[in-house]
Design a protein that fits this description.
By secondary structure, this protein is an alpha+beta fold. The protein has one domain (5-75). The protein has 3 helices and 3 strands. It has a 3-stranded antiparallel sheet, covered by helices on one side. Helix 1 packs across helix 3 (60-75). The longest helix has 16 residues, at 60-75.
Length: 77
């Protein structure tokens, strides 16, 4: 059975997914790192590939806002 939750410790990918409106489920701690959890989506894999290939088109201000918010959450862990 495929799990419907995608997890990443990469804050840049987390900000990308949140800016793409994937539902943020929460943040857990794994050692010294934060693990971001999102409701998985069929578009997630394409978004990540596009990100690493430099083909993502998103609102930069939103992306930065989400990154800053996630950074604050990790600092509070």
């Amino acid at each position: 059975m495929k799990e419907d939750v995608y997890r990443t410790s990469d804050i840049y990918i987390a900000a990308l997914l949140r800016t793409a409106n994937l539902k943020f489920l929460g943040l857990t701690k794994n050692g010294a790192r934060g693990v971001f959890e999102f409701e998985d989506s069929p578009e997630r894999e394409r978004l990540i590939l596009d990100f690493y290939n430099g083909h993502v088109v998103q609102n930069v201000r939103q992306y930065i806002d989400h990154w800053m918010h996630f950074k604050k959450l990790v600092e509070r862990l």
